[in-house]
Amino acid sequence: MSLIEVKNLTHIYGEGTVFEKVALENVSLTVEKGDLIGLIGHTGSGKSTLIQHLNGLIKPTSGEILVDGKNITQKGPLIDIRQKVGLVFQYPEYQLFEETVERDISFGPVNLGLSSEEVDIRVKESMELVGLDYEIYKEKSPFELSGGQKRRVAIAGVIAMKPQVLILDEPTAGLDPRGRDEIFSEIKNLYEKGNMTIIIVSHSMEDMAKLAKRIVVMNHGKIVMDGETRD
Ligand code: ATP
Ligand code: MG
User: In whole angstroms, what is the distance from residue 141 CA to residue 31 CA?
Assistant: First the structure.
């Protein structure tokens, strides 16, 4: 069984209005355990819409999505999906809301009902995996950090839920080349040491050819290419 199966997914924004926009048209995709996918395509091609579906954030016009064999397009508690599929937003500011880095990262695990010892362990492990020093950052406000550091906090908060699949929407947006290389090496580290299946949304074929093991290309709401990279 595939980890994720997307079957004939169509998403129309503002259906029946003058703003109607077909963002996804009959998209089918399977994600296997251990995949490291670069999802690329021009602006407006439907990448963010597709990955928001994988995380259960929005509901499709038609089609279905199975995660671990379970249909997530039907009603059910979102926390189940969040534990399986973690999503780091294109603008990570939107998922940082606590006063300290530690509280931000522990928010998910606390909501899972873990003991405070288990929460502590998860926070420290996640920070280490994304390269944030626990002692230096735990008391800092997420809002006073740089773009790259904010992104690391957002990633740590998502991986603290121990999802099977981690999705990063444009993880290097707004970073300079050095910040970009750092985030890419953290992602490689997460893939290798964190034992995770990863999907990275990007505009850059060049970046993804270096980083990903499989490339999926979208154009006008459809998948137009899906193949392995040579390494
Ligand atoms: P980018 O690379 O710019 O982030 P994307 O590939 O992620 O683009 P989406 O954000 O999925 O593209 O958008 C796909 C299409 O759906 C676009 O035409 C966009 O204008 C439209 N769209 C996206 N979100 C909404 C929304 N909330 N309401 C209406 N239309 C939307
Ligand atoms: Mg997008």
Answer: 36
Mutual angle of helices 116-129 and 177-193, in 10-degree steps: 130
pLDDT tens for residues 179-197? 899 999 999 999 998 889 9
pTM listed for this prediction = 0.95
Ligand 1 mutation target, pool 15, 19, 21, most atoms within 8 A of CB: 21
Question: What pLDDT digit, counting tens, does each position of 4-33 carry?
Answer: 999 999 999 999 999 999 999 999 999 999
- The atom number, within ligand 1, closest to the CA of 19 reads 29
- How deeply is 68 buried, as exposed, middle or buried, from its count of CB atoms within 10 A (0-12, 13-18, 19+)? middle
Going by their DSSP bridges, the two strands 165-169 and 62-67 should be labelled as unpaired
Whether the Cβ atoms of residue 20 and residue 13 lie closer than 8 Å to each other = yes
ipTM score of complex: 0.99
CA of 69 from ligand 2 middle (Å) equals 27
Question: Can you list the domains of the chain with their CATH numbers?
Answer: 33-59+75-228 (3.40.50.300)
Dist. CA 115 → ligand 2 center (Å): 36
